[in-house]
Design a protein that fits this description.
Strand order of the largest sheet: 2-1-5-4-3
Order of helices and strands: HHHHHEEHHHEEEHEEEHHHEHHHHHH
Distance between the termini: 26 Å
Structural class: alpha+beta
Helix content: 40-55%
Shape: globular
């Protein structure tokens, strides 16, 4: 998880960029360009938004018909979301988020969260009936996800409206069975709670809602512990299906791992970039790898947007799930090593770092010394972890000798 100092520095940098660029965009005849601080997507949204949104706006406008409750009752999203309500509330309560679901217009239809965070959210009308499309509320994660049809994160002063600079939002679109965007699922919290796992969480929850839309039931999540495909990718590389080991090349294991970690799937170009980066690999080579994996899995890889269409049990996903519910002990037990340690695929390297950072941060925020001691076995040169163990261990605890010895070996 990013350090508070890093987040504060990022926020300050974005505030400076906002103060430099926005006055130029609002002044007639002046069009200052955003620097490298902002993504092109956010900078373009700022420019579009200023045609209809005052950056000093204090809250989102109300939908014109004022009937969010009735629209939610008739929404196809309600059944799948109701089926996930307990998990959505758990994520919101445990991590200090507000969870929201909108319709295709960007109007919030449903929210949940702890009392304190919901009150904060209600001050900016992040509540049922509030309009969060770009025309109404400018640049935000909900409006970007609706516009692009892709997951989006907007942090602090990336928001056009200054009243939102204290927030970070993670959002994923919700697609119907026909591919249409029916709305978005959003997790929002204060900027200082930004977490590298939040986007993976919202993507997984959105995928579960979409699964419920496809089956027409409210039991949206696919059972990851169901018999069938078992993928081991932490410290090892193995895939077993129906009791038989699959003979997959390293590249196909990389594809399978990426699809397991992002159940909503990949657009072809994004998956290709996640596998090869800037390497000059032909489209036919890429498609051949996908085809081989699809045959090995019995056809359970969707076309057009690459995604798994059958349950998969994956140790990396299990670690993420344990971390999301605050179960550091289980996460440490399952985290047997880095993700696909031999892989140099950019997407795998990104997920590898995410997992390593998340597990380490969970250890450093835990008040149980056995977590630091166990992690220290795999990280003998991590002085911060050893010092954390010593802080937690009582003066007469014999285990202090272990942590002291490890710390001395790093000197």
């Amino acid at each position: 998880m990013p350090r508070s100092g890093d987040l504060a520095q990022r926020r300050a940098t974005l505030e400076d960029e906002w103060s430099r660029v926005i006055p130029g965009l609002t002044s007639p005849g002046s069009r200052r360009r955003a620097g490298r601080v902002l993504s092109r997507e956010v900078a373009d949204s700022w420019a579009r938004s200023l045609a209809s949104v005052d950056p000093a706006r204090t809250h989102a406008p109300e939908s014109s018909d004022g009937a969010a409750h009735h629209r939610w009752n008739g929404s196809p999203l309600r059944g799948p979301v109701d089926g996930l309500a307990d998990e959505l509330r758990s994520v919101a309560d445990d991590a200090g988020f507000v969870t929201a679901v909108t319709d295709a217009s960007g109007t919030i239809l449903w929210t949940c969260g702890g009392r304190t965070m919901r009150r904060r959210a209600e001050r900016v009308n992040f509540a049922p009936g509030g309009r969060w499309d770009e025309e109404a509320m400018g640049t935000n994660a909900l409006s970007l996800a609706l516009r692009t049809g892709r997951p989006s994160t907007v942090f602090s002063a990336e928001h056009l409206v200054t009243a939102l600079h204290g927030w970070v939002c993670y959002c994923a679109p919700l697609h119907g069975p026909d591919g249409r965007v029916l709305g978005v699922l959003d997790l929002s919290t204060t900027w200082d709670r930004s977490h590298p796992l939040a986007m993976a969480t919202v993507r997984g929850l959105a995928s579960a809602v979409e699964a419920g839309l496809r089956t027409g039931t409210s039991c949206a999540p696919l059972p990851t512990d169901a018999p069938g495909l078992r993928l081991t990718c932490l410290g090892a590389e193995d895939a077993v299906r129906a009791g038989a080991r699959l003979r997959l090349r390293p590249r196909q294991l990389e594809i399978l791992t990426l699809l397991a970690l992002e159940p909503e799937g990949y657009a072809p170009e994004r998956l290709r970039a996640s596998l090869y980066g800037d390497r000059p690999v032909t489209a036919s080579t890429f498609k051949a790898e996908i085809s081989h994996l699809r045959r090995a899995l019995g056809g359970t890889v969707a076309t057009r947007r690459y995604a798994l269409t059958a349950p998969v049990s994956c140790d990396a996903v299990d670690v993420l799930r344990a971390l999301r519910r605050g179960d550091t002990g289980t996460a440490l037990r399952l985290y047997r090593g880095p993700l696909l340690p031999r892989s140099q695929a950019p997407g795998i390297e990104e997920w590898r770092t995410c997992l390593e950072v998340a597990v380490r941060e969970a250890v450093l925020t835990s008040d149980r010394p056995e977590h630091a001691l166990r992690y220290g076995e795999r990280a003998p040169y991590d002085t911060e972890v050893h010092r954390h163990a010593l802080r937690l261990l009582d003066a007469g605890d014999a285990r202090r000798a272990i942590a002291t010895g490890r710390l001395a070996s790093t000197a």
